[in-house]
Amino acid sequence: xxxxxxxxxxxxxxxxxxxxxxxxxxxxxxxxxxxxxxxxxxxxxxxxxxxxxxxxxxxxxxxxxxxxxxxxxxxxxxxxxxxxxxxxxxxxxxxxxxxxxxxxxxxxxxxxxxxxxxxxxxxxxxxxxxxxxxxxxxxxxxxxxxxxxxxxxxxxxxxxxxxxxxxxxxxxxxxxxxxxxxxxxxxxxxxxxxxxxxxxxxxxxxxxxxxxxxxxxx
Length: 218
Prior knowledge:
Layout: H1 10-20, H2 27-34, H3 43-57, H4 66-82, H5 93-97, H6 105-116, H7 132-141, H8 147-161, H9 165-174, H10 179-217
Helix pairs in contact: 1-2, 1-7, 1-10, 3-10, 8-10, 9-10
C-alpha cells in the first residue's frame, strides 16, 4: 500500500498489530513494536496515535530480562485473550456482535469478505475467521492502489472492526491489564479510527482521478 495522507503506512501498522495478537508473543514481534514510528502521521490524527504507541512501547524500554518480559506478557495475554476458560476479553467479533457466542454470524460474514477480496489470511484455518489477529492481517494484506481496494478496506473497518473493537477495548481496560496491553488495545482502536478517516479522504480522490481520466479520453 502507498502511505496514506501525511505518510502513515497503515499496512505496516496492521501487520505488526496482527502479530501482537497472535499468541504467543516473541522477541522479534516485540522488537518490531519497539521500532514503530509515527513521525509521519497526519496532524489531525497524530496525537492519539502517538500517545497510544508511546504507552505500548514504554514497558518495552525499561530494560531487564527480555525473556522474563516475554513470559510476563504471554501470561497476561493468556488471562486477557486466550483462556483456559472464558478469558477477560475474547478477541472475536462474534463474541461482541452475536450475543457473546463464538463462531457466530460475524465469523461467516468476515470470511465472505476475505473470499470477496480473494484473500485468505495466513491464520485462516487455525483460528476462527473473526479473531482480531486474522482481521488485522486481512487489513494488512488488502491492496490500496485502487479505489476498489480502498473501498474494501474502508468497508471492512467500518462494518467488521469498529463495530466491536471499542467494546472489546473497554473490557480489556476494565480487567486492569499490564500497561503494555492497555497501550496496545488503545493503539489498535486509534489505528482503526485514523485509517477510516484516511480512507474517507482517499476514496473521493480516486473517484475524481477516474472522472478526470474519462474526461481526458473523450
